[in-house]
Write a structure and sequence with these properties.
Elements (H helix, E strand, L loop, with lengths): L1 H17 L4 H10 L4 H22 L12 H21 L3 H23 L12 H17 L4 H11 L4 H23 L7 H24 L2 H24 L1
């Protein structure tokens, strides 16, 4: 089982670096290993965090602000939202948010298509205001700390809609994902009942996969990244809706 989890983590780490959605791979794998949904969600967040830090570090030279907000402001907003989301997870059931996941991923994919193919980056007046962009990032960070599934799609959608190039948006969302999850990890690490051997195996795989994915982000043509994100987003949306109907 640990070998399977390692392979899963390799894929999840690379997927997080390129587009996001790695937790949609690790979460079901952990549930199949015997963990309940809430415990698997916490373990997945802890395990993917080192890989997110790795991808953020590799792509740090490509990061930037968006919609008039500096990168530092986005970091602070993400950290605060991640802490709030993690606290909510420990205080409330996740069933309500779980039902929203297919709709959030569908919305994020549609927004990413608009931001990538229809939004002109030179039309700054048509983008969101700094206040609106900050509020959106704060809500995304809360969701990231609480559940995290599809968080990469949401941030890519928000950043590209704000005028960021796809490659820069990808690098920026990798750093912001690690920041918002840092707040969650600081809370989750003290949760009793964590299966640390599984978390450790996943973490190693996520680091290796994330490192490779971060370098691919620098080399792969942006059109391929856009296509990969859209196909993956649509596939995840369909799978999540089908799973919800069962």
């Amino acid at each position: 089982m640990l070998i399977v989890l390692f392979v899963v983590a390799l894929w999840a780490g690379a997927q997080n670096a390129l587009a996001g959605g790695g937790s949609f791979v690790t979460l079901p794998a952990l549930m199949l290993s015997g963990l309940d949904a809430r415990a698997a969600n916490i373990a997945s967040t802890l395990a993917l965090f080192p890989g997110q830090v790795t991808t953020g570090w590799v792509g740090r030279r490509m990061v930037g602000g968006a919609a008039g907000l500096t990168f530092r402001a986005l970091v602070l907003i993400s950290l605060a939202g991640g802490i709030v989301g993690a606290a909510l997870l420990l205080l409330t059931p996740s069933s309500f948010f779980a039902r929203l996941v297919p709709w959030l991923v569908l919305f994020a994919t549609a927004l990413f298509v608009w931001g990538s193919f229809f939004h002109r980056t030179d039309e700054r007046h048509s983008g969101p205001s700094p206040r609106l962009a900050g509020a959106a990032q704060f809500l995304i960070a809360i969701y990231g700390g609480y559940f995290g599934g599809g968080i990469g799609f949401l941030m890519l959608a928000a950043l590209t809609a704000a005028g960021s190039a796809v490659r820069a948006a990808g690098a920026t969302k990798n750093v912001l994902a690690s920041v918002m999850n840092a707040g969650a990890v600081a809370i989750f690490i003290f949760t009793p009942g964590i299966v640390w051997p599984r978390v450790a195996v996943l973490a190693v795989g996520a680091v290796v996969g994330g490192y490779g994915g971060a370098w691919l982000l620098k080399l792969v043509d942006e059109r391929l990244i856009r296509g990969f994100v859209i196909v993956l987003g649509l596939g995840l949306t369909i799978a999540l809706f089908v799973r919800g109907v069962r």
